Prior knowledge:
- It is built from five helices and seven strands.
- By secondary structure, the chain is an alpha+beta fold.
- The chain has one domain: Photosynthetic Reaction Center, Chain H, domain 2.
- A hairpin with a 4-residue loop joins strand 6 and strand 7 (80-83).
Amino acid sequence: MPLYKLADFDPNYKETFGGEDVKALSLxxxxxxxxxxxxxxLVDVEGRFRYLVIETxxxxxxxxxxxxxxxxxxDYNAKRVYVxxxxxxQVERLPEYKESMxxxxxxxxxxxxxxxxxSSDVTHNRDTYNYQQEPSLYNLxxxxxxxxxxxxxxxxxxxxxxxxxxxxxxxxxxxxxxxxAVPIEKERVVIERVTPKGAEALVDSNDLKFxxxxxxxxxxxxxxxxxxxxxxxxxxxRVKKIVEHETVEAQDTIRREExxxxxEGDLPINQADTRPIDRV
Length: 280
């Protein structure tokens, strides 16, 4: 699981905590011995604190280490973070934390081994490990951090794809009577019998040969129309769909629980806002 520096995850983290800055606190043992200061904090993808980056004061080098959040107790009023024991030997066993490094599972395992009890023989798998498996390291102590949960309702918007209709394209056949005009030619024979003009020509009967039968042959033609049907593409129909976007607004009445504090007598009350950061 990736981890983020506090300011990288939420640039306005001070406003989120009501103006409080965990990086301005000093680290003390429960016995009141100063052992270092808070240089930064690492949170997971949901904004939950997982480690405090501690700049130790056991030596002059100021070695930086990681402290699992479950081993700490934050007191903003005293401007201190308390840890239930942090020995010099533990600091020496812990791997050094550097600003430029990426905190991966192997590095976290080195850190966890330094804080686990020596008698612990529990083995963990990198593929299935989660922080809930070690509540002593990552959960806040409920005895030292009394929790009163306030709930609120939020409008959650989602969307699902539903069928609103469909378009079906088909075709049918319509018939009509079409007419076409084709000019044709027909031949016909015209026989004219006329009387010669002027004197009738005399023909020598000796030279005249009378005969019966065919005298002349004329072939007569006419055009016959040939009509047939052919199919042509009259038009094309293209079908496609486009996606239109619109924003749908909805409103409803939501409820939220607010804290009511009622006291009796003259009691000093200090309030500190330590709500977890909501990821933006």
